[in-house]
Each structure stands twice: as C-alpha cells, then as structure tokens.
Amino acid sequence: MEKRFVIVASTKDPASMNILENLRGLVSFEKTDLKFMGKEIEYSDEIKSYLVIIDGDLIYADYLDDIPLDADRLIFLSKHASESKMPSLLVHYPGNWTTDNKMGGKPVEFSIADPAIHKALTIALVEKKRRGEIPERYVVGNEVTHHGPTINRA
C-alpha cells in the first residue's frame, strides 16, 4: 500500500508559512471536501500528501492524532531556534527524553519514528545544499528529539 502523508503548517509560525509557500511553488495542492478544526484540507496527488493548516503552536498540537485522514505519517513545517542563532534546516522527531514538557508533548514519551523518511529528507537537504540550492549560511542535518507534539499515528 502506498504511504500517504499529512503535512502540517501553522499560521502562528512565520517560518512554517514560508516553508509552505516554497512547497506550494514546487507542488500543487487541490482543495478537498474535508475539514479539520474548521479549516479546509488540501491534497497533492504529486506527493501523495494532505495539507492541514492549524492556527495554534505546532509543539502543543498533540490533538493531531485525531485528524480524520487515511494517512500514515505527519510532517511538520516549523521554525527552529538554537542558542547559536545559526540558520538551519533540520529533520527530527518530536518527543521528550525527560519529564520536562514545557515545550509540548508528553513527558518521557516519543512519537512514532520512520527512519526511512528521516533518511530521505536528510539526504534531500544535504544534496540541495551541495548543489547550492540552499544558501551557504544554512546548516542542514538532524536534530535531537526535545519537544512536542507527541503523535502516535502509525
């Protein structure tokens, strides 16, 4: 069976909206008859992915397990902030190693991970950087799990 994805963006996150705008320049999304939290859900047949846009913070969106879609995985378009302030494009899974969940998610719980998708996204970023399609000042790679949401859709 072919995998389908849900791409999740947030109107509250300018980086999320910027990433979405760039994604829309690469693939087409069509409106569906489906809604989630009052917003239309779109679908791209090109990448076999639904698009859900929420108004809240992505890191606190544990409720996304309830999206009524036939999809295997969720992919979040979100900002990244680091102590170094280095601009970066990173791939990682949400979840918390400790009881501290002030950045969303459930304490000491991890989302279901798909290593094949993680690897494919990381390789795609590295290749785009190598070809000069990502500005030199950006770091691309992986990040350790450290925040929410906790999603256990499989």
Condensed summary:
The protein is α/β, with parallel strands linked by helices and 154 residues long. Helix content is 18%, strand content 24%.
Protein described:
The strands form 2 sheets. Strands 2-3-4-1-5 form a 5-stranded mixed sheet, with helices on one face. Strands 6-7 form a two-stranded parallel ribbon. Strand 3 and strand 4 (49-54) form a beta hairpin. It has helices spanning 14-24, 115-130; strands at residues 5-10, 30-36, 39-44, 49-54, 73-76, 88-91, 139-142. It is globular. With 154 residues, it is α/β, with parallel strands linked by helices. It has a single domain, classed as 3-Layer(aba) Sandwich (Aminopeptidase).
Helices and strands in order, then pairings?
Elements: E1 5-10, H1 14-24, E2 30-36, E3 39-44, E4 49-54, E5 73-76, E6 88-91, H2 115-130, E7 139-142
Parallel strand pairs: 1-4, 1-5, 6-7
Antiparallel strand pairs: 2-3, 3-4
